[in-house]
Amino acid sequence: MAILKEKIFVTESGDPAERIMTGLGPYLKTEPLLFSPERSALLVLDMQGYFVDPGSRALIPSAPDIVQAVSSLADAFESAGAPTIFTRHLDVKGEAGMMERWWGGLICREDPLSKIWHELELEGREVLDKSKYDAFWGTGLDERLRDVGVERLVIAGVMTHLCVETTVRSAFMRDYEVFVPVDATATYNRELFDGSLRAIAHGFAVPVSTGSILETFDVE
Question: Hey, where are the domains in the chain?
């Protein structure tokens, strides 16, 4: 049976981030960490054509819906001089280990869909290649962040329940303060999305809206 694919950010009125945050209810901390731009970095995971292009077999239906939020976050961080890092998942056939055994299909460099989605500005921005769900695994990301004094991370992108959640957990274990903008991440369906955000909220990171992050940069 094929996995259900559906739009996540569907609401009759109002801000979808507000609906998502309300749904997290008891999983939210009563005294959460407060985001501050100082010593912060933005990590955008795997916003590649493979997941965003409507013609891709791996399209995440809501991925195109988060492009604007991701772009706004990247612009805000860049304007503030804060590190902004985009990751790109790339596999090498015969070397992908469990990723290849589990999924069968690979995202290879020569595939045009492996590129970061064209609507996201990359000029002058760092792109970090990775080969596992965890953006810290074998990439030197932790050292890169420590070298510039980063203490807190905003993690956005796809997929919420795979690369985003795994990287959030990994960042928490490395003692970063972690924030996840709920309207700047997506996965295949509401069940996976909600379940992942509940786990994230309960043990690893503070769910926030994109707007609340932008407000700290004085961006509307």
Answer: 38-216
User: Is the pLDDT score of 12 beyond 60?
Assistant: no
Closest CA to 219 of 122, 74, 117, 16: 74
- Residue found under tokens 């998502």: 20
Residue among 219, 11, 218, 44 nearest 125 (CA): 44
- Tokens standing for 47? 């916003």
pLDDT 10s digits, 113-135: 999 999 999 988 999 999 999 99
SS3 48: strand
Start-to-end C-alpha separation, the chain: 43
- In CATH terms, 38-216 corresponds, of 3.40.50.10700, 3.40.190.10, 3.30.420.340, 3.40.50.850, to 3.40.50.850
Nearest C-alpha neighbor of 45 from the set 21, 66, 27: 66
Residue 203 has pLDDT above 90, yes or no: yes
